[in-house]
Each structure stands twice: as C-alpha cells, then as structure tokens.
Amino acid sequence: MSANSAVTRTVDVDGTPFAYREIGLTEGVPLVFLHHFTAVLDDWDPAVVDGLAERHRVVLVDLRGVGSSGGTTPDSVEAMATDLAGFLRALGFGEVDLLGVSMGGMIAQVLAQQEPGLVRRMILAGTSPAGDAGPANALALLQNALQQAAAEGKHPKHVLFFSPTARSQEAADAFLARLNERTEDRDAEVTNETIGAQATALAKWEQSSPEGLTTVRQPVLVVNGDNDVMTPTISSFNLAKYLPNAQLSIYPDAGHGALFQHHALFVEQALEFLSA
Amino acid sequence: MSANSAVTRTVDVDGTPFAYREIGLTEGVPLVFLHHFTAVLDDWDPAVVDGLAERHRVVLVDLRGVGSSGGTTPDSVEAMATDLAGFLRALGFGEVDLLGVSMGGMIAQVLAQQEPGLVRRMILAGTSPAGDAGPANALALLQNALQQAAAEGKHPKHVLFFSPTARSQEAADAFLARLNERTEDRDAEVTNETIGAQATALAKWEQSSPEGLTTVRQPVLVVNGDNDVMTPTISSFNLAKYLPNAQLSIYPDAGHGALFQHHALFVEQALEFLSA
C-alpha cells in the first residue's frame, strides 16, 4: 500500500470519527505523521511517506475537525495533543514515533510532555518551541501568499514552503506534482473555521513557555530549511538547544518545506535516526 | 593502510618539508584533513580517518611549523591557507575535498575564497565564520582547561572538546583511547611558539569579515555539537547561513569534538555528503 493508494479509514475517538491512512509495514512501532497548519492527508509528500514506509508502519491522521475527520478543531496545541493521544489509544498504539511538521511538530512536543510513555522518538520539521516569534503570523503569511500566488500564477506553497531561488522553486513544482499524483479517494480540504482555530492555537503557542522541553528525554531529530519564513530557521536551532537529546539538520536553499524539497536526504537521515 | 599504520612522509613546499600521511584509496579526489589549534597528525580520531578512508583518499597534513613539519607557523589564517595551497600543489592535487576542524575549518573557508578551483566540497566542523566571537578566547580556554584537567586528573580535551555530561565524558575517554592506539612513528607535539602564532591567528579571525562566504559556491557540510565552548554552536548556524549551499548538522550532548564523539553518525553523513 503506497501513499497514493492507501485507503482512508476512520476510527472512533470518544464519539468522533478521525480519518487516517496506513502505509508500509504492518508491524513495528508506528510512525505517526502530524500535519501542518491547513493541511489534510493529501498534503503529505508521497516521496517522504513511501520512503519512510519502506521500513516503518506509517500512519497519517487528520486530527479533530481537519479534512475528513469529524468534530470541531480546538484552538490550542494542548487540546490537539490530547486528541492525538485519544487517536493513538483508539488504534491500540502503546508507543509511537512521531513526525510533526510545523504545527504538527508543536503537537508532538506537547504530547511528549503530556504522555512521555507514548513517544519513542520524534522528528520535528519546520517547527518552533513555544515562546518563539513566528507562528502567530501564520494567518497573515497565508493571506499574503494567497494573493502573491494568485498574482503570479503559483501555488501558495511556492511562497510559504520554498525559498525564492530557481532551484527551490523547481523543487516546489516537483513537490506539488507529487501531491497531485493521488486521484482517487482524496481528502476533504480544511474549512475556514478550522483554519481560524489553528491560527489561534499558533498565536497562543508564541505566548507559551518552552520550559518543559528540557524534560523531554526522547531522541529528537530537528529538521528545517535555511530560509524558513513561517517558523524562522533560528527557532529550529533554539528547539534543538532546549531539548536534551536533539540532533539538528538544516538543509541548504530551502524553506519551511525543506523535508519535501530534500526528500531523499531527509528520508535517509530520518531512517537512520529512527533505527539508531 | 590505516590511520594507525600510515607512514609519515614529507613533501617539499617551497623549501620547507611538510609532514603528511595518506590513508585509504589511492585514487579519486583527495580528502584533506585540516587540523585544529594545537593539533598534530596524531590528534585525528582513527575512527573518523579510517571510516572516511574506506571510500576516499584521505590525506592528513601538518601545516607550516606544526608537528613534524618545518618552518615557522604563520600568525594568520590567510597565510595558513596559502601554505595549504602550496602543499596541495606540491602533491600534484588539482582539486580536493576538505575536512577542516576548528582552525582547520577557517583555513578551508579562506582557501575556498582564495583558490575556489582547488576545492570541490568542504566539511567544516566545530568552526566559525570570520567575525564571530569565540576563537580569540582559545588560548585562555586552553590554559583554564590545562589547570582544570590537572586538578581533576583528566585530559584538557575532556574539558574543551566534550560536554560535561557523563555520556559525553565517557565518549571523551573512548576518543582519547583511540588517539593512543598508534604506538610507532608518532608525530612531534606543537611548540609553544606555534601555539602562540595560532592563537594570534584565531584572534585576528574574530576581527575579520565573513562577507566573502556568500561567494563560496561549493557544497558545504557544517557540523558541530550542541554545546561547543570553543567556537560557540551558534557560529556553526551563522556559518551555514552565510554560505549559499551549506547543510548543517548539530549533534546532541556534544561539544567542539562532536565529530569524534558521534563518529559513526558523522562518518555516515560525511560519506553521504561527499558522494551526493
């Protein structure tokens, strides 16, 4: 089962259906992908999903109110982490690895503090520790990117996820083409209500404290591009610094979506990290 | 030929004998190791040398006035880079990869600007761009470390190259044991005169400008530990930021000698980087 053919299923989490897909191995510690602001199941790069699924049981999920999942998206990262814990229990997962991108990386950070026993290892890509400036601008950046993209005939991800160089923009084209490979059973898009709740959660994140990170003992791989306009690259440096056992990788000429641009390098480093 | 058995040879560089050792492949683009402040040929970790030599022609060198080389160590990084260019030409190398640690990483940065055609790729470990604070303290840090090490029955590298945690200090013990594996044909230690000239060069480095780094087009892998007291970790972040095509790796719970502590991970990332 590959990223583009995996069936979308739902599981009941305290009365709400959560949509998810499973790809790759059918046993071993699951590797759960946690989505970014505005993203649904179809926003995951098949190159990354299938690359990691070669050696892992990969699970993609829409949290509450996102994509095809039911319920209303909560407006705090903490509540999203509680939803994630409920989802993991509903699938019977006692221990997981997490790949969190942007807002998903924040959810992972909180889960590791709320329920350390559930988390074996984490990969945190294009994200920031609580208290760092950046995430509160997400909605404004999105609106600007929508305008710029419309004016230039581009996708907003050209602006938000990649650096402005020709090489990075070409990588954006290739990434967007991969996202369009799946033709059947595509996920629903996020609603404006969900975008609003997520933006509020991101704004609150800037007002929160990163203190608890120093208690996270799990091995963490922190990844970003050297030119991230959404969660500034320095925040990945700060995140790795707070965490007692974090390895940091910053990729050249890349933005918020560095793991998608440099997918071959990322998959290789992630596989190595998860197996070490 | 392994790190511990490689014969020490000399080559004449404009009338001065430069000591060097060759390990690994006998063809391909040479990978030249550039030593740190106070280091000689025997300060290279055999785990790193032999790991990289499995796929590369590795060349270790004592620059002018260092170890068994003749001449007087110059007191600027620029002059050291000129010496390096002379050494490469003396061996007939038209293009090389460079692994520069600390001061060696500074020499590599300058060579890539002075003679871009000579440099294919660079790995810069535990080093800093010109203008960043840190290197000017090297001599004072060394003197403090000598005192602390004597008081605690340790080697100064326990203090200068590793973080204070139990895990990192154990890695220091293992590293120092590896450095002692070679019993025959050991190199001469650096003289106080050389240490003084190198310290002057490091102090001048802080007063220099990093501007030229933006013109370095070669792929660069920047590596450090998350707790470097000699060239603060943030300088590796800054270095990667100046360079247009740099990948950054920061290793957990490690100091200036992160590449020696995490030698398996470093060798793997370095091999991947050099072959990409």
What's the SSE blueprint?
The structure is a homodimer of 276-residue chains.
Chain A: E1 9-13, E2 16-24, E3 30-34, H1 46-53, E4 57-61, H2 77-90, E5 96-101, H3 103-114, E6 119-125, H4 138-152, H5 156-160, H6 166-179, H7 192-206, E7 220-225, H8 233-242, E8 246-251, H9 258-261, H10 263-275
Parallel strand pairs in A: 3-4, 3-5, 5-6, 6-7, 7-8
Antiparallel strand pairs in A: 1-2, 2-4
Helix pairs in contact in A: 1-10, 2-3
What does this structure look like?
Two copies of one chain form a homodimer. The first copy, chain A, has a single domain (9-275), classed as Alpha/Beta hydrolase fold, catalytic domain (Rossmann fold, 3-Layer(aba) Sandwich). The first copy, chain A, is 40% helix and 18% strand. Chain A has ten helices and eight strands. The first copy, chain A, has an eight-stranded mixed sheet with strand order 1-2-4-3-5-6-7-8, sandwiched between helices. In chain A, helix 3 (103-114) links the parallel strand 5 and strand 6. Chain A is globular, with a radius of gyration of 17 Å. The mean pLDDT of chain A is 97. Chains A and B meet through helix 8, strand 8 and helix 10 of A and helix 8, strand 8 and helix 10 of B. Strand 8 (246-251) of chain A pairs antiparallel with strand 8 (246-251) of chain B.
